[in-house]
What we know:
mainly alpha, 6 helices
Amino acid sequence: MRPLQVFRKSSGKSVLSLTDNAIDAMTARMRYVALAVGTIVLGLVVHLRGDALSPAVRDVLGDALWAAMVAWWIAAVAPAIRLPRRAAVALAFCFAVEFSQLYHAPALDALRRTTAGHLALGSGFDPRDFAAYAAGVLAVVLLERATERRRLR
């Protein structure tokens, strides 16, 4: 079914109408965007106000939240793609960003020294981050499966 359908009214004018699939996709996108933004807020709270947490816990939690945020954005862009594939794409993206930290160019390193660059691209390669990324994506998968089961009841 196409996302938009054209209907002709008796007056001869064409009217565009959204199909149920398009409305469902828009609803899913809005939900995923809200989850991504909420995860960003939570991540910033951990980053800026997580003084009660040890530095190691803050680092791991921040990386897991970053990976979850990536998974939500991928879901917002492509909600029709099945969950396992979206999770694999999110994990691959996170791993690629981590591996990119092995590459150092003056302009890229300067970007990584900014707050936004540090939050988006990280600052240094750490193989332990892979486990945090996997945990963040796994949390998204488990949350989505749990909510899907509830919706089907």
